Amino acid sequence: MSESPLIDTHVDLPQIIRGLGRRPLDVIPDLATRLPGHVDIPKMREGHLGGAFFTVWAPCADQFLDQPYGKDFLGMSEGLRDSLEVLDIIKNMIKQHPDHMQAAHSSADIRAAFASGKIASLIGIEGTHFLGNSLSTVRLFAEMGVRYLTLTHTCHSSFAASSGGGGYMEPSNHGPGLTDFGQELIPELNRLGVMIDLSHTSDQTMKDSIKLSKAPVVWTHAGARAIQDHPRNVPDDVLKLIGDGPGKNPGIILSVFYPVFIGPTPETANVSRVADHIEHVASIVGRTHVGIASDFDGMYAGVHGLEDASKYPNLIVELLARGWNDTEVYNVMGENLMRVMDEVDKVKVRMKDQLPSSAIWEKRPDLPANWGGPEQADLPLEVRDLVNSRLKHDELIFKDQLGII
């Protein structure tokens, strides 16, 4: 572990910091000593963590906050504000602990941080439900350093259908997979060089995304459904779409440590069982398409033997005991992921001359903007005439749709 970086693609530490104090930034200095939960700097150091993706997340407001989004996802919440504040926490974590953490965005950045003895610190977004039904927010998050986007969390969004939280999931009003808007999101993420994370998504969303993406896709924290039958895990028919060879997406599945997803029961889930998931996935996609993703601080507990960020070596020992050679272990630790990152970056370069998608969520009632004030008095006269004409036209169409005229 001193020769090649171990990279965890899903660490929810920022939401813990946000929950520990009314002024979350005041909590960040404590990261150097001890924080309650699964992750702090001493634990990461003890676990020989070489890199981590810290997640930007805000809860599904209809599930966590009793604030319904509505059938067309137009209900407003503070999710976008909250996600920006979480991103601010991540950036300040890195800035305030320069002896231990170093910002990274590419595989080269990860290697540079590792060579300097620091934890490469990257950013992922978990969910699209708090993005305001907008591709503009996706583009701006990409500019701020976000490296992957999970297409859903436990709720559906205007972009895609979710697999839910494990129980019954009410179907989306806009189909079982990607929406029309979501089909615009996939090439936009390819153009931006943002990895497409299919954790939490419905099976159809997975298949739709794989079909559309020009770049490798990722599952930043998932298991194998054949080992533990849970909708959050990846089914074999989807795994068969990933790997080397014609017609396959050269993506990666990174194994989670969440006991409910690992099994056979939450009480008996352990490090050996995590290795079972990795080996099953590898038996289908190949050993160059698997990796490690804890979900630390985003779950009540890790499996036995992987209780917190100090325990990563236990999984490496387990794989070595099963006969994985040094190269294969280095690959699962992080080399496979960095290869995927490089391939995503190559697609970005090839698409650099393409313009941003102009697509909008067609259910939005706020576009074109009507910001001219009373009687549109704040607009130039020529624009005022056009807007007033449009408003009358739109009103007639709306009444016609309602059968009023």
Automatic annotation (TrEMBL):
Pfam families: Peptidase_M19. SUPFAM superfamilies: Metallo-dependent hydrolases. This is Dipeptidase. Keywords: Dipeptidase, Hydrolase, Metal-binding, Metalloprotease, Protease, Zinc. PROSITE patterns: RENAL_DIPEPTIDASE_2. It comes from the Eukaryota. It is an enzyme of class 3 (hydrolase). Its EC number is 3.4.13.19. The keyword Signal does not apply. GO terms for molecular function: metal ion binding; metallodipeptidase activity. It comes from Cudoniella acicularis. It catalyses: an L-aminoacyl-L-amino acid + H2O = 2 an L-alpha-amino acid. Belongs to the metallo-dependent hydrolases superfamily. Peptidase M19 family. The lineage of its organism: Eukaryota, Fungi, Dikarya, Ascomycota, Pezizomycotina. Its cofactor is Zn(2+).
